[in-house]
Each structure stands twice: as structure tokens, then as C-alpha cells.
Amino acid sequence: MRVADFDYELPPELIAQRPLPGRSESRMLVVDPVCDTLDDSHFAELPGYLHSGDLLVFNDTRVMPARLRGHKEGSGGRVEVLVEEIDADQRGALCHVRASKAPREGTRLVLADGALTVEVRGCEGDRFRLDFGAGEPLADRLERYGEVPLPPYIARAPSAGDRERYQTVYARERGAVAAPTAGLHFDDAMLARLADRGVERGYVTLHVGAGTFQPVRVDAVDEHEMHGERICLPAAVADAIAATRERGGRVIAVGTTVVRTLEACADGAGGVAPWAGETRLFLRPGDRFGVVDGLLTNFHLPRSTLLMLVCAFAGQERVLRAYRHAVAERYRFFSYGDAMLVWADPAVRR
Fold first, then answer.
1. 228: which DSSP letter?
2. Which of 9, 32, 195, 280 has the greatest number of C-beta atoms within 10 Å?
């Protein structure tokens, strides 16, 4: 497989730059591989596609205001820091640093209008180890001085409203630098409607890293090295999935992050085992799925690993046809865009 096999034409004006006024107002394209149909619907109609006894699994990661701007001490050269992984001591962190010239070890960076001064401790791969010094927990300092890390395809500065809208209503585990965007469509009213219908829900955690926006830099898909992301699947979710199987319900993942978490913890018998650690699972056409029956997701970037995952789940030709349909019907794309409800192709089930 070539990365170019996962390309499609997207007019720039279809990239959503702002959320709609209401979370649940988005459109929703339903892809059914069994009937081989595409259904133009709306997210508000989601309960009608689900059954009592189904299980929705959400990613409860919370986006940190992880972007800091400033300059190098001495030279004054501008820098932009994206904090990705905070050390256990809440003092140091692994960060992406953008600057005209990569900072050397020992360089001091003055950030947030002088509120923070940090020191570069070294380079680890494409990230830098920064020391923020003693004081209050770094996560709390980010809440005070950081900026919402909107994706690079949103061509505007973050607004005050993004603090609330680029975050799911159920976010609780702080640690992501990008939102699990399929969950942005849910509001409290929708969650209540689903509960009234008898749809169960559970929560896993995958802290979305900056690697989710990195382009695939190889030509052959199998040569791509997936970035690592921290996950946690609690015993309660493993039990809920087992109970769903017993009653004949379906497991629906809210977002590709949940798919990766569940399939990374698959036990080979349709269930999952509780686990916490790092996953580098890369799902692409040819892989099989042992846990997930349905996927609620947004539209993803061309040539991305996320698009490859959806193609693996529902069939490459079918998904790319759905994307062409979405472009023709003027759906809104990417983080603040519209949704897809995708059912698994039976051929990819274990």
C-alpha cells in the first residue's frame, strides 16, 4: 500500500474554522458496509441508529492549554512551545519547540510575557526536555498561562470560546494536546437521550499527542512508524464490554482514539483486558478488529493514519467513496467539522 492511495481532494473552504453554535447541530454521514449504503443524516439523529443494550465508549482525556509563546533569552529569537508530556515531578516536560534555530542545551526560554522562564535540558528525538523550575504543578501553570493548542489547519488565533468548545463535556483526565474530536458533538442533552434509550457508556483514556497531526513521511504505508500515546483501560470498561457481548449489544467507539485503545487491549475473544501504558498500534487495511462494532468519528486529513484506520474498519474503496460524497455534499471537515457513523465491514472482524 502507498500513502498516496489514501489521498482525496478537499476544497480549503470545507475545513471548519469554528464550531457550530450548538455541539449536536452537526451533520452525520452514516456508512453501512453490510447494505453498502451512505445515509445523509444529522448527529441529532444518533439515538435512532443505536439500540438498547449497545455500549458507547468515550475517551475522557482533557486537553491542556499546552501552547506557550515567547523568546530566547539573550538573542530574543521567537519560540513557540507545545508541552506534550509532563514529568511526574510536575517540573519538567517533553515539548515540541518551534524556532528559527533549534535551541541548544542550556538555552533559557522566556515564555508567557515573562511569567515563565525555562531551561533546555536536551533533545530526545524530535522533542526537547525543558525544565520549568520549582513551584506550583506545571499543569496548573499551563491552565494559567497556556493557550488552547488548536490544530494547524485552523487558521486563526484561539478565542476564549475555544477553551470550552475544544474540549468534550465529559473530559476529566488532563494530558492531551489535541481533542478527541468525535466527542465534541456530544452535549449533556444528547447523553441523557442516549441513556433514556438504554444505551450504556464507558470511558477509557488516550492522551492525544502532537503526533496525530504529523504527516506520514514515507511512501509505503508499512514503513511508517506510529507515534506512542498513553492509554488506560479500566476494569470497569472491560466488564462493561463483556456484559454487552452477553446481551447481544454492540460496542461503538467514539473516535479513532477509542478504537486504538480497545483494539490494543483486545483479549482475542471479543473482549478486552484492563491495561495502562503506551500504545503504538497502527491500524490500516488488512488488519482485523476484535472488539469494535461501530465507530463515530470526524472526517480526517488526506494521507493520515486516522483515515487509514477508518479505511481498515469499513473498506478502503467504500470510505474514500464516502469522503468524495461528503465533499460533493459540502460537509464540514476536521476537528470542528461534521461526523461520520461507520459500521464495521464484516470481513474485517476476527
1. P
2. 32
The set of residues, in sequence order, having a beta carbon less than 8 Å from that of 317 and lying 6+ positions away, is none
Q: Which residue has the cell 490544530?
A: 151
Pair 47, 59: CB distance under 8 Å: no
DSSP summary character for residue 90: S
Residue with cell 502507498: 2
Phi, psi of 245 (to 5 degrees): -60, -45
Nearest of 156, 140, 254, 152 to residue 205 by alpha carbon? 254
Task: Read off the pLDDT of residues 244-279 as tens digits, 9 standing for 90 and up.
Answer: 999 999 999 999 999 999 999 999 999 999 999 999
Residue range 157-180, pLDDT digits in tens = 999 999 999 999 999 999 999 999
Integer Cα distance of 179 and 149 in angstroms: 9
CATH number for the domain formed by residue range(s) 67-145: 2.40.10.240
The per-residue pLDDT for 211 is 81
Q: Are the C-beta atoms of 340 and 318 separated by less than 8 Å?
A: no
pLDDT of 222 reads 95
CA quadruple 150, 332, 320, 309: dihedral positive or negative?
positive
95 φ, ψ to 5°?
A: -135, 150
Distance between CA atoms of residues 207 and 290, nearest Å: 22
- Under a CB-based contact definition with an 8 Å cutoff, are residues 177 and 66 in contact? yes
CATH 2.40.10.240 positions along the chain are 67-145
Q: List every span in the chain annotated with CATH 3.40.1780.10.
A: 3-63+163-348
The C-alpha cell at 314 is 469499513
Which positions ≥6 away from 167 have C-beta within 8 Å? 62, 63, 179, 184
pLDDT tens-digit profile of 124-152?
988 999 999 988 999 999 999 999 999 99
Residue 41 has φ and ψ, to the nearest 5°, of -135, -165
Q: Does domain 3-63+163-348 have CATH number 3.40.1780.10?
A: yes
